[in-house]
Design goal:
Layout (H helix, E strand, L loop, with lengths): L1 H10 L4 H18 L8 H11 L3 H20 L25 H7 L6 H13 L3 H5 L6 E2 L6 E2 L13 H9 L14 H14 L8
Antiparallel strand pairs: 1-2
Helix pairs in contact: 1-2, 2-4, 6-8
């Protein structure tokens, strides 16, 4: 089903990056839940989303991808029900320095060095602050576990699962053998680099 879905999405003119992101989310959902698409319920999806330990914005993106897949499947009579019906996620903050959803999406597609792009996805998809990014170590990234997780204390007893975009950035970045991921950077360096990137693309907000 997933390959057929991806093929039709491409035929409909969606960008390759969008198709890849959607299919990664759907494959991950299937792999981590171990439930067939026919048996998938809203409860299953909610439980999975709770375990991903991501922001509401990222959960909203996940739900949108899953919803598109099931609506496609229902149109083709592969599935009878959409398990995302009734699932909504909203922002909990009104911080004036917070970047809008539209600008976050735009930043993910702007040209940037592998290092700056890595900063951006860690902040956007893992919810890390500048301080946490600065002192993030290789040892905190567990690529051997299933699912792959980030061992950072973020007010939860579960390690946050690594977002697909973070995994993609890891592949494009030269990761040290051990120690800090960005050993030459200090908090003000990262804040300045990200701030300059925001300014270049006229994004309002701040890197905290």
């Amino acid at each position: 089903y997933i390959e057929l879905f991806a093929k039709e999405q491409r035929q409909d003119g969606l960008k390759e990056g969008t198709v890849d992101a959607r299919t990664r989310i759907i494959r991950r959902l299937q792999r981590e839940l171990g439930v067939s698409f026919d048996d998938l319920s809203q409860k299953n999806v909610k439980q999975w989303l709770a375990l991903t330990w991501t922001t509401d914005e990222t959960k909203r993106q996940y739900v949108a991808a899953i919803r598109e897949f099931f609506r496609w499947g229902i149109r083709h009579r592969f599935f009878e029900d959409d398990p995302t019906v009734g699932l909504t996620y909203h922002r909990a903050t009104t911080d004036p320095d917070e970047i809008s959803d539209k600008d976050v999406a735009r930043l993910m597609t702007t040209p940037a060095s592998p290092e700056v792009h890595f900063f951006l996805v860690l902040m956007a998809y893992q919810g890390l602050t500048v301080i946490e990014v600065t002192f993030l170590t290789v040892e905190k990234i567990d690529l051997k576990s299933q699912p792959k997780v980030l061992k950072v204390e973020k007010g939860s007893d579960k390690a946050p699962i690594l977002h697909p975009e973070v995994l993609a950035s890891l592949d494009a970045f030269t990761v040290p053998d051990r120690g800090r991921l960005f050993p030459k950077r200090k908090p003000h360096n990262i804040s300045h680099m990200v701030g300059k990137h925001f300014e270049k693309y006229d994004v309002r907000g701040s890197a905290k």
